[in-house]
């Protein structure tokens, strides 16, 4: 009980784009001519060529890397700021800290945006 999802039970028929045969929207392809059924193949997250999930995965990976780099930049800036000998050094370190902090926040938002 409760195992069958509502969209699986709601059967509807569409015309095959190739041969106009009545095909269930739940079918992957037309049983008569074998043409792929768009209603079944287009809405899922995984596209037939698998491009979208890879793109999302790569994006979230590069965002993760960016977050890591920004936090490293922040910490290097923080440590350098405390151990700076000259005002120029401490100014540069502060700049690195600010860039790291802004990048970190921006990338955190970007990751949230990508993952939904
Ligand atoms: Zn067909």
Overview of the molecule:
The chain is mainly α and 116 residues long. The chain is built from four helices and two strands. A two-stranded antiparallel sheet has the order 1-2. A hairpin with a 6-residue loop joins strand 1 and strand 2. Helix 3 runs antiparallel to helix 4. The longest helix is centred in the middle third of the chain and has 33 residues. The radius of gyration is 26 Å and the shape is rod-shaped.
Protein traits:
about 120 residues; mainly alpha; two-stranded antiparallel ribbon; 2 strands; binds zinc ion
How would you write the strand order of the largest sheet?
1-2
Number of strands: 2
The number of helical runs is 4
- Structural class category: mainly alpha
Report how far the terminal alpha carbons are from each other. Answer: 31 Å
Biggest sheet record = 2 strands, antiparallel
**What is the string of SSEs from the N terminus onward?**
HEEHHH
The helicity comes to 55-70%
| Overall outline | rod-shaped
Mean pLDDT: 81
User: What is bound: which ligands?
Assistant: zinc ion
Low-pLDDT sequence parts: none
What fraction strand?
5-15%
Q: Over all CA atoms, what is the radius of gyration?
A: 26 Å
